[in-house]
Amino acid sequence: MNYNIALLKGDGIGPEIVDSAVEVLKKIGEKFGHTFNFTPYLIGGCAIDATGEPLPEETVKGCLASDSVLLGAVGGPKWDTLPGNKRPEKALLGIRAALELFTNLRPAKLYPALKDASPLRADIVERGFDLVIVRELTGGIYFGERGKREGKYGEEAYDTEAYSRMEIERIGKVAFETAMKRNKKLISIDKANVLETSRLWREVMHKMSEEYPEVEYSDMLVDNAAMQLVRNPQQFDVVVTSNMFGDILSDEASQITGSIGMLASASLGYNKCGMYEPIHGSAPDIAGQNKANPIATILSAAMMLRYSFDLGAEADCIEKAVDKVLEAGYRTADLLGGEGTALSCTEITEKILEMI
Ligand code: IPM
Ligand code: MG
After folding, report:
1. Partner of 29 at 20 to 30 A CA spacing, among 90, 132, 150, 310?
2. CA distance between the termini of the chain
3. Quick one: pLDDT at residue 258?
């Protein structure tokens, strides 16, 4: 088969890690007889520099016309002082909205080979964990009304969170279906003791749980969830939550796996065209030095094969290659904590290619 992939390399380490994933996809293409065509488009800071806009129209059109999108990372200190709607991050929200990618799947599992990289106590890590965060991605406070106004204490800024029943239902459906395909266990995370949006969220989730009697369903307050994630991550399997809570908890979940450089994500909407990206940022401090860990992006490419192209065996092949490279003891700097020899971004990519 022939697949057209839009590449949004972005800023910082974005180009390096996307190049690694492209090499891996090319190798998979050779092995399994597929052709992947790659078309690069500008997004984020590099787009601002070239066109004045973080998300040029051409990029949106290109992504809409492609079979799937692979993204590196956006942002950097150079663009940090721009106003909110001109910042590179705005492009990320814009492309998620333009493609209607309301679902964000963020799996976090502990690789046995990386146990020592986890900041958790050995007896907690020993039991392993494997969870997936289903984060709502096109609603909530990220997209609510915002601005500045005169308040009780003078100038104030505000952001608002709104969730419609429809938005909660559609993400809920994805979460319950995901739970059905895994261990039939779902925890919905909210702040229903304070927020009205969370109370509606909880009401809708409860109602949906009646349609999925096989799924063991429960709710958890987000502050408790933040604590439980480090106390006993094994209790989580599928987690569903709002845009902002999902943003925060997925960074926490990634760190307990050992490194944020390992976590892939898939952003999905109503059709097969998804956007795949590592959950980490553009790491400007190590950009251009060939030091970045490309694994999260490579695993994101595997998710693309699985979710957008239904190429499960090909996705497994990438995931197994990553497993083998880690089992063999190869590490990038982020996974070493200062000890041992670090492989560069291109070196670890080579190792993964060899295992495919
Ligand atoms: C993420 C990132 C983005 C988000 C930023 C860069 C806008 O943190 O994908 O988790 O908050 O969604
Ligand atoms: Mg984030």
Report:
1. 132
2. 19
3. 87
Q: Strand, helix or coil at 130?
A: strand
- Which pLDDT tens digit goes with each residue over 200-227? 999 999 999 999 999 999 999 999 999 9
Mark 4-13 as b/e (b = at least 16 C-beta within 10 Å). Answer: ebbbbbbbbb
| Phi, psi for residue 289 in degrees, rounded to 5 | -105, 5
Mean pLDDT (the chain, rounded): 96
Residue 56 backbone phi and psi in degrees, to 5: -60, 150
The pTM score is 0.94
Cα angle: 343, vertex 35, 296; to 5 degrees: 30
Q: Which residues surround ligand 2, an ion (CB under 5 A)?
A: 247
Q: Which atom of ligand 1 lies nearest, measured to the CA of 93?
A: 7
pLDDT digits (tens, 9 = 90+) for 29-84: 999 999 999 999 999 999 999 999 999 999 999 999 999 999 999 999 999 999 98
Residue 72 Cα to ligand 1 middle (Å): 12
Both structure tokens of 33:
């007889």
Q: Which residue has the tokens 């488009």?
A: 41
Residue nearest to atom 9 of ligand 1 (CA): 279
pLDDT over 90 at 338, yes or no: no
Per 3-state DSSP, the chain is made up of helix, strand and coil in percentages (nearest 5) of 50, 20, 30
Distance 247 CA to ligand 1 centre (A): 6
